[in-house]
Structure formats: structure tokens, C-alpha cells
Design a protein that fits this description.
This protein is α/β, with parallel strands linked by helices. The protein is built from 14 helices and 11 strands. The relative contact order is 0.18.
């Protein structure tokens, strides 16, 4: 097999498929008809190569991840007004709510506050390719087909993104500490906070930095080419390599079941991957299972494999990441492991790792957002901003990984 030649062709086909789905469905915010329709197209494509295909329906709350931003902004304004007029305990409770919802929904991706948001239905779609012989292991190749909301901080003054974010978040944390210090001094020691007036007026003055956070999330979705339809398209091309056509098995794999999986609701806090992991936990753990997840595919020289996920708090498989990096090295690509930085969010691999699956995520984008132009989570997330060489490299690495694992099985 001429990997480079075929990978080159498959890369173009993956980019064309990505464009086709974007043209037909547009932005695909989780829980919308457009997202559901994209899942149907993907499942139909899976049917060309897979022995069977499925669509798992699940309920979730689309704003579970990002809704906390507006909630905390409103809570800060209300709490600061309580503080200004001398109601210190309600203010302290309000600031505590800000910390609780932020930690729950974004830092740790929990579901404590999910019920306060509106429900919707999502659909994970997947296809299964059985090997020629006895199944001894299974490899999941995954991406997600929902697209993100536009982040206004990325579309306007992206080089100031981190500064604007810090200036918005810092007053909330300072206010939480000072408010409870004031409460303790007042009710435990019958004393007053030495700089109480400065705190009261400072909390109000900070509105200039905090209130813009309310408009952090735009109303519209992105085209979602690099994040993350191209990942699903790559997975479908892999299905074409190893899949079965007609009544005759390709026998490309001897002992490895291949699962081609496209998650929904990744942009809502990995809710689709969480639903899949919970529903299929038994079969995921019945035999050795490995998840090769892909997310945010743009630049060849930015390809990395995650070893820790969800803001750095969830461990992924270092062994799997090292193997993938070694395979990439043999193919001529110099790749390093990556720990998801705090504030970077999470990927679907984390939810499978939580139930015991060996998993890693390949990403191919700059970690730093301080640059002149940002494509990620903006209306510019189009096929034109995905390097074909990056797609080709990923196909080659993934192909090599599957073959090596099957050979060892």
C-alpha cells in the first residue's frame, strides 16, 4: 500500500466531505435540527463501509458548559449591588455561587447545575467494522460533529483575549475572599473591614471588566470545519480503508474491531461522550479498548497527543500517546505529548478514559490564543484554514497505529 499517495487522496476527500456537510447543514449547534441532520449524513456515510451503524439518542442541556459565563456575570452584578448597599451576607453568598458554578461546570465538567438549563436531544452516531478473525481488542476512532458557538473575544482583539479574561475573572475571586473576610470579621469579632468602602466602590468599578464577559458567547454557531467536522471526516476515510464493501469482507484487520464514532454535544461539556461511555461501559471494558480521538485539526506543525485532559485534571493514556508519537516519528513527523492547559477545556477522550478505556486525543492547533487572527471558535473556522498536509499526516499516523495494534493482537 502506498500510504503517502493514498493518504494524499484521502485527505482531499476528507476535506471535500467536510465542506459538503457544512454546505448542507451549516453551523451545527448541539441540540439543533442542523446538528441532528449532520449526524444522519455521517451515519449514511458509515453505512458504506461498516457492518452495522447505530444512533444513540440522549438528553442533555446544551448550555451546560458555557451558560455559567452569563450566570456568573449577572450574579456578580447583583452581589456587588448587595455589597454596595451594606448587605454583606447576601453578597458573599452570591460570590460563592459564582465560584461553585464555575468550578462545577467548566473547571471539572460536572453536571451539578445542568438542570437549570433547557433540555435537548443529542445523537451519537457510530459504525462497527468486524475483523476477519476472533475479536481480541477494539479501537475507537472518534471526532465530534457539533460545532461551537462563536466566541466574541476571539473575533475582536484576539491578542488581548487572555488579558480581558483575567480582568473579568479576577474581581470575582477577590470579591469572594474579601466578602467572607468581612462577614467573619463583622459577626465573629465585631470588627469592620479596614478598607470596606474601597472594596464596595471597587466591586462596582469592576463592572467595566466583568460585564463584557456576558457577551463572550455569540448568538451564532461556527462552520466548525477544523473543530471538528474534519475529525469525523478523517474517521470516515479510515472506515473506507479498513471497512467491508458489499457481501465480501476486506479482511484488512485480523483481530481488531474498529468503531467509527462521531460524538454529539462535545461543545456542551462532553455530554455526548459521557452518555456514550455510560451506555456502553460494559462492552467497552469487556475486551481491551483504545480510543484514538481527534479534535481541532488545523496545522501540521501543531499536531500533539494529549496525556492529560479537562483543564489538566483528567489523565489519559500516556502509553497510547507515546506509541502514537513513536509511529509518527517513523513516518517523519516530530510530535510531542501535551497536557491540556488550565482554561483549555476538555475533549471527548476524557469521558472514555474515566470509565477505564485507554484513550488519547490528537489535536493540531496552537495552544496559545494570543495571536493576530484566531480561527478556532470563530466564523473563520472553514475548510480553507485546514492544512491538507495535517489531514494527510493524521490519516497516515492513524492508519499505522491501527495496523500495528492489529499486528500485535
Amino acid at each position: 500500500m502506498n500510504n503517502k499517495f493514498e493518504a494524499d487522496i484521502l485527505a482531499k476527500e476528507a476535506l471535500d466531505l467536510t465542506q459538503k456537510i457544512i454546505d448542507e447543514c451549516g453551523p451545527r449547534l448541539a441540540g439543533t435540527e442542523a446538528c441532528r441532520r449532520s449526524g444522519e449524513i455521517i451515519r449514511k456515510e458509515m453505512g458504506k463501509y461498516c457492518d452495522r451503524t447505530e444512533a444513540d439518542e440522549f438528553e442533555f442541556h446544551p448550555m451546560a458548559l458555557l451558560g455559567f459565563i452569563r450566570a456568573t456575570t449577572v450574579a456578580y452584578v447583583v452581589s456587588s449591588l448587595f455589597l454596595f448597599f451594606g448587605y454583606v451576607i447576601p453578597a458573599a453568598i452570591g460570590y460563592t455561587f459564582i465560584a461553585a458554578i464555575s468550578l462545577s461546570q467548566f473547571v471539572f465538567y460536572l453536571q451539578i447545575f445542568d438542570p437549570i438549563y433547557k433540555k435537548a436531544k443529542g445523537y451519537n452516531v457510530y459504525g462497527v467494522i468486524e475483523p476477519a478473525g476472533e475479536v481480541k481488542q477494539q479501537i475507537i476512532v472518534s471526532g465530534h460533529h457539533d460545532s461551537a458557538y462563536v466566541f466574541n473575544f476571539f473575533t475582536k482583539f484576539p491578542k488581548l483575549y487572555r488579558i480581558r479574561l483575567i480582568l473579568g475573572i479576577l474581581p470575582m475571586n477577590v470579591a469572594l475572599f474579601l466578602a467572607w473576610t468581612w462577614v467573619i470579621m463583622k459577626y465573629a469579632f465585631d470588627a469592620s473591614l479596614p478598607f470596606a468602602d474601597l472594596f464596595r466602590y471597587g466591586a462596582i468599578a469592576s463592572f467595566i471588566f466583568v460585564v463584557p464577559l456576558y457577551f463572550f458567547i455569540g448568538k451564532n454557531g461556527t462552520p466548525g470545519a477544523g473543530d471538528n467536522m474534519i475529525a469525523t471526516a478523517i474517521a470516515l476515510k479510515i472506515a473506507g480503508i479498513f471497512g467491508n464493501t458489499g457481501k465480501k469482507k476486506s479482511a484488512a484487520l485480523s483481530h481488531t474491531r474498529l468503531i467509527i464514532l462521531s460524538f454529539d454535544a462535545e461543545e456542551s461539556g462532553l455530554r455526548g461522550a459521557r452518555a456514550y461511555a455510560r451506555r456502553h461501559r460494559t462492552e467497552l471494558l469487556a475486551i481491551p479498548t483504545y480510543c484514538f480521538n481527534m479534535d481541532s485539526i488545523y496545522d501540521l506543525d501543531k499536531i500533539k497527543f494529549l496525556v492529560r485532559d479537562i483543564n489538566g485534571f483528567t489523565g489519559l493514556s500516556k502509553k497510547m500517546a507515546r506509541r502514537c508519537i513513536h509511529i509518527a516519528g517513523r513516518l517523519g513527523y516530530r510530535i510531542k505529548p501535551l497536557v491540556m492547559p488550565f482554561g483549555g477545556g476538555g475533549t471527548d477522550a476524557a469521558e472514555l478514559a474515566k470509565v477505564g478505556v485507554e484513550a488519547t486525543t490528537l489535536i493540531a492547533m496552537p495552544v496559545s490564543v494570543e495571536r493576530d487572527a484566531v480561527v478556532y471558535h470563530t466564523p473563520e473556522d472553514t475548510v480553507e484554514h485546514i492544512q491538507p498536509q495535517a489531514v494527510e499526516a493524521i490519516i497516515r499516523i492513524l492508519h499505522g497505529y491501527i495496523l500495528e495494534m492489529d499486528g500485535e493482537a
